[in-house]
Design a protein that fits this description.
The complex is a heterodimer of chains A (294) and B (293). By secondary structure, chain A is mainly alpha-helical. In chain A, α12 packs across α16. The longest helix of chain A has 32 residues. Chain A is globular. Chain B is mainly alpha-helical and 293 residues long. Chain B has 13 helices and two strands; from the N terminus they run αββαααααααααααα. The radius of gyration of chain B is 24 Å and the shape is globular. Classes of the chains: A mainly alpha (294), B mainly alpha (293).
């Protein structure tokens, strides 16, 4: 009976005046956190052991002595047995791809949203819908013909082929347009009276006001770009432009003679940049995620 | 919707729209149109002559028992991933919404899997479930379970489902948390004063108020399971063993890029386009309704 009373006094989401319930909450949350982190922990610890330990299936849960050797080997040579590309090269390719996709998407989306929100011109709604409809045509549903277009344009195995087809963004355009519609008319009128043209207004007013939205999109789009898998798989066949995602799956091979300790070290390196950005820019990330999807 | 204060330039808006529209037409509309066109065409084995075959590619596709299996795989996969990731996320969000110490730390520690690539998530799950080198895989074998997801189709499906759901929990968690935080505290207090137990409050007050969020997440999760899990399947099972983990997207990739069967792959692309259109429409219908709340 006393307990029922207690829980009435402290309904869910209210100040914790029930120490026992709080303890259970902490316990389950910590369990959840650990469950989430377990696979990362295994890979992190495994990457500091030699090939033999992992190959025997010992699954070490404590650090070993081979960290420098393993990370050095993959960073400089990749998977040497398979004539793999150095991880440093693949990380560079992934970084170029992720950053150019991110900035490309933000740049072309912000200017097209500006056109749609601040100008009146024939075909405005038609163009807006044309951009909007691309939401329904992800690359996954047009695999073969899109590859053919890229191949006809001679863009297979190039950075341009990796990046340009991915930088159209309906989501980012919608987000910017929605935000632009909240900029008060008085601000536009005042700028016009001061003799500022559309380009001045964009540079001095719209762009600074969009800083938060740009930061939020940066996180989401960087993760999107870095993690691309199907598209690079389609348009790259040479190792020159191989990204880390393609390289790491290649390293697995047919799993008969895989060098698991090297795969583990590469896994840690591959997930570090996007995870770091999400954690460091958490505030913008959460805002961006919840808002772009609305 | 249109604003009142507007600039009058004639050419500038077109210039601003040009880059986005150029990419949209060249890499979206043109290939999508081609997919539709190819889906009605059949090439002979040498690619010399082509023939317009109306709906033959589609009737062949839906007559193929393999495609039936792929459809069933996709349904099992999507429903399991959606249910698991949403259930876990809701549970964690309800707990993290309580006013406890270290709330923000928990949030940080629960959102990072969002940033892990599908292909990388798959590799993490290899180290958990591989029969020879995986932590859980070896433990299962030690207990006498005949565990080998590279040979057993059901086990393979289980592992890809777990990897895909694990990755999606963070996303659902953030939305459920936002949903919970928007429930007015006065409503909860009123229910508490009326003497409703925590469980009863959850069932009769919190859960109904979360239904817009849940419905939205349902659509998003199905879309995710359909379209964004290619990397997980390719890295973990390559659609195998047999065809046990082949989903619609994976099949379209195999037919288009590996078997170079353009007609079959294009017909599948068209089927997927219809699926994604239906999902998008459902999503936007729902958002429209939410606006009128």
């Amino acid at each position: 009976m006393a307990e029922a009373r207690n829980s009435i006094a402290a309904p869910m989401g209210m100040a914790g005046s029930n120490p026992r319930a709080d303890m259970i909450t902490h316990f389950i949350l910590i369990l959840g956190v650990l469950l989430f982190a377990l696979p990362i922990w295994i890979v992190l610890m495994g990457s500091t052991h030699d090939a033999g330990t992992i190959g025997r299936g010992d699954v070490p849960l404590l650090p070993g002595a081979e960290a420098a050797a393993n990370y050095g080997a993959v960073w400089n040579q990749g998977n040497k047995q398979r004539a793999g590309v150095p991880v440093s090269t693949m990380m560079f390719n992934s970084a170029i791809m992720a950053l150019l996709i991110t900035f490309g998407k933000i740049a072309i989306s912000i200017i097209s949203a500006y056109a749609v929100a601040f100008f009146s011109f024939p075909g405005r709604m038609l163009f807006f819908w044309a951009i909007f409809i691309t939401l329904m045509l992800p690359v996954e549903v047009r695999i073969f013909p899109t590859f053919q277009v890229v191949s006809d344009l001679g863009l297979v195995n190039t950075y341009a082929g990796l990046i340009v087809p991915l930088i159209a963004s309906a989501t980012a355009t919608l987000l910017f347009r929605q935000f632009f519609l909240t900029i008060p008319d008085e601000l536009v009128e005042a700028a016009k009276m001061d003799g500022a043209g559309p380009i001045r207004f964009f540079k001095d007013v719209v762009l600074p006001l969009s800083a938060t939205n740009i930061a939020a999109l940066f996180v989401i789009l960087f993760v999107y770009g870095w993690n691309q898998y199907l598209w690079p798989l389609l348009v790259t066949t040479s190792t020159d432009v191989e990204t880390i995602m393609i390289g790491i799956v290649k390293m697995l091979g047919s799993q008969g003679d895989t060098e698991w300790h090297l795969v583990m070290a590469t896994t840690v390196l591959a997930l570090l940049p996007p995870v770091a950005i999400v954690i460091l820019m958490q505030r913008w990330f959460v805002k961006g995620l919840v808002e772009t999807e609305k | 919707m249109q604003r009142k204060a507007i600039f009058n330039n004639k050419l500038l808006p077109y210039l601003l729209l040009a880059p986005q529209l150029a990419i949209t037409f060249v890499f979206f509309f043109w290939p999508a149109g081609e997919a539709v066109w190819y889906s009605f065409i059949r090439q002979d084995a040498f690619g010399i002559s082509t023939q317009f075959v109306w709906f033959e590619n589609f009737t062949d596709l839906f007559a193929d028992p393999l495609y039936h299996q792929v459809i069933i795989n996709t349904i099992i996969f999507s429903v399991s991933v959606t249910f698991l990731s949403m259930a876990f996320a809701l549970g964690l969000a309800v707990l993290a919404d309580r006013h406890i110490r270290g709330k923000d730390a928990y949030r940080t520690l629960l959102i990072w899997p969002y940033a892990v690539a599908p292909a990388v998530a798959a590799i993490l799950y290899i180290f958990l479930f591989h029969p020879d080198i995986g932590l859980i895989g070896r433990a299962l074998k030690g207990m006498g379970v005949a565990w080998n997801y590279t040979l057993n189709g059901n086990q393979a499906m289980l592992v890809v489902v777990l990897a895909a759901a694990w990755k999606q929990v963070s996303y659902n968690f953030l939305f459920f948390l936002a949903g919970l935080q928007s429930i007015p505290k006065s409503v909860l207090e009123a229910a508490a004063i009326d003497g409703a137990s925590p469980l009863h409050r959850f069932r009769t007050v919190i859960f109904p108020l979360l239904s817009p969020t849940s419905f939205f997440l349902l659509v998003i999760n199905i879309t995710y399971a359909f379209f964004d899990t290619f990397g997980i399947i390719d890295a973990l099972t390559k659609g195998g063993p047999g065809n046990a983990t082949q989903t619609l997207i994976y099949r379209a990739y195999v037919d288009g890029r590996v078997n170079l069967d353009i007609g079959a792959s294009s017909a599948q692309s068209v089927v997927l386009m219809i699926a994604v259109m239906a999902l998008t429409l459902v999503q936007f219908r729902f958002i429209e309704r939410k606006v009128h709340y």
